[in-house]
Amino acid sequence: MDEFTRQDLISLVGAISTALAVFVAMIAILWQSHLTRQVQSVTMLRDYDREFNEEILIKARLVLAESLLSKLNSPTPAGHESENLLIGQYAMVPDFFTTIGILVNKRILDVEMVWSGYYYWVRHYWVLLWPYIETLREKQGDKTYYTNFQRLHNRLNKYQKKRDKLSYRAPTEDALREFLHDEVLKCTVFWKVPTEPAPAPTKA
């Protein structure tokens, strides 16, 4: 009986050791997967940050910010907003955040990293563009326009609230105007306007 008990104990210890080894291996795999996603997120955000500050998107941000600032200073009656601010070059900005929103929803991009890099723009641009998005949805009879941008805005607001333990407050009109002035200034400064070639020297 004693011999059987010792053998049983040895088997039990072996089973527990195997289970622990499997558990540790699973934790290691999950941790490695987490690190891989973090590295992937950093790499992708670096690429998107480069795109956000390239000339083509800088120009789009500039013309959009100038147009929104003009409309903010000369308000359009409610319900008469034009969806023209969501086509062509203007649309490049909300389209950019739509893409970021899709990647966050798919958990390809880390929420904290996106919040750190883009919340300032998402928070203000969504509030500024919402009347035009709402008009576009109503005119097209399609409520799915820019839903991923909207989800990104809501997700980052939720993260902000959790981080600072404060309830969300939409930007005031003065804050929106300050944001647009700042955006115009930054885009003007960073916009790499091609310089014209210097004229060839004339012969004496």
Rg for CA atoms: 27 Å
Uncertain stretches? 193-204
Structural class label: mainly alpha
Q: Provide mean pLDDT, rounded.
A: 80
Indicate the proportion of strand residues: under 5%
Q: Please, what is the oligomeric state?
A: single chain
Shape: elongated
Question: What summary fits the major beta sheet?
Answer: none
CA distance, first residue to last residue:
117 Å
Helix content: over 70%
Count every helix, treating DSSP H or I runs of 4 or more residues as helices.
Answer: 6
- Count of β-strands: 0
Write the H/E string, N to C: HHHHHH
List the helices and strands and how they pair.
Elements: H1 2-52, H2 55-73, H3 92-105, H4 111-140, H5 147-164, H6 173-190
Helix pairs in contact: 2-6, 3-4, 3-5, 4-5
